[in-house]
């Protein structure tokens, strides 16, 4: 067994997070489901697992760094006195296994500080045929203490990571989104009020099927908002840019303004400046407290698309008769 730090390609003083990151990358690269006809890759996968079993576990890593155990996880014998007495610890289960298999029968003996082997394979290898099959493959190659003739046990299926894209209209009006489960079935997911983008909803028992009659895993549905052509999401509030003509801004007007629940007539006060923000209460997204955020309407003044001689004449006269400052002294 090579030095575990070298196997994972990390320095001896690497952080737990860096070690975990290196392991995830190598385990994904050399996983047997990705390299079914490559014995060398499968052997490398086994070596990576053994290395992480040592340096991914805070206690074992300390013992290895102090020279108390070797790269194979076994104690290094030290002589005490002339009678040849040797002091050692028992690492692993009966038969000298390196601790890959826990008492519950699953793989994951190490990595106390950085996330167990079992959790990591569930996380990164579910798409390669399920975390349970990955752990079984790893255990078979690493000789992880499975005794001959042991009866297969029921195992829970791995979680399925899904993404639901929901429109802002559906978020406000129906509160539901559609997702397709690993079984191929399409279902409507109820989105709790106040859900923000990136939150996950757990559907229990809707993940990947279990093994040997074990229960299915869960479906973890991440909520993502579809981009909207008019509205920008800002927490529970929405932001809308409302274009105005010059005369609407100067004289005031009632302007038809879209919202997620239907258009309303917004009263624009006379002499409104561009980029002024008006607030429509309760026209935003649902909140966790049962209410709604607001719709923030930013006024955007647009000039005529083509030059207008009358407007130019008016502006020249206005400049001479009623000049005013649009910028403060900080712009001087």
TrEMBL record:
Q: Which UniProt keywords apply?
A: Chaperone
Q: Which PROSITE patterns match?
A: DNAJ_2
Record-annotated J domain positions: 3-68
Q: Which Pfam families match?
A: DnaJ, DnaJ_C
Q: What is this protein called?
A: J domain-containing protein
């Amino acid at each position: 067994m090579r030095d575990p730090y070298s196997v994972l390609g990390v320095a001896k003083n690497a952080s737990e997070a860096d070690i975990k990151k290196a392991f995830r990358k190598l385990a994904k690269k050399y996983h047997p489901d990705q390299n079914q006809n490559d014995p060398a890759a499968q052997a490398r996968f086994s070596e990576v697992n053994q290395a992480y079993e040592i340096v991914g576990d805070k206690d074992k890593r300390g013992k290895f760094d102090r020279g108390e155990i070797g790269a194979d996880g076994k104690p290094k014998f030290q002589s005490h006195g002339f009678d040849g007495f040797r002091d050692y610890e028992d690492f692993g289960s009966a038969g000298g296994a390196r601790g890959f298999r826990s008492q519950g029968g699953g793989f994951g003996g190490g990595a106390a500080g950085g996330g167990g082997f079992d959790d990591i394979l569930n996380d990164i290898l579910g798409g390669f045929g399920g975390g349970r099959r990955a752990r079984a493959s790893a255990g078979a190659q690493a000789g992880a203490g499975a005794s001959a003739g042991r009866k297969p046990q029921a195992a829970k299926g791995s979680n399925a990571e899904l993404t639901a894209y929901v429109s802002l209209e559906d978020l406000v009006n129906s509160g539901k989104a559609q997702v397709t489960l690993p079984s191929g079935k399409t279902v409507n997911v109820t989105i709790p009020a106040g859900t923000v983008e990136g939150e996950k909803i757990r559907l229990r028992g809707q993940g990947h099927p279990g093994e040997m009659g074990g229960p299915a895993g869960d479906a973890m549905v991440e909520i993502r908002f579809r981009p909207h052509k008019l509205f920008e999401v800002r927490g529970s509030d929405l932001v809308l840019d409302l274009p105005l003509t010059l005369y609407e801004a100067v004289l005031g007007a009632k302007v038809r303004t879209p919202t997620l629940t239907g258009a309303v007539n917004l009263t624009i006060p006379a002499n409104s400046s561009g980029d002024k923000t008006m607030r429509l209460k309760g026209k935003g997204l649902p909140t966790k407290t049962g209410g709604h955020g607001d719709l923030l309407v930013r006024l955007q003044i647009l000039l005529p698309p083509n030059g207008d001689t009358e407007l130019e004449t008016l502006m020249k006269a206005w400049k001479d008769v009623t000049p005013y400052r649009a910028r403060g002294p900080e712009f001087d």
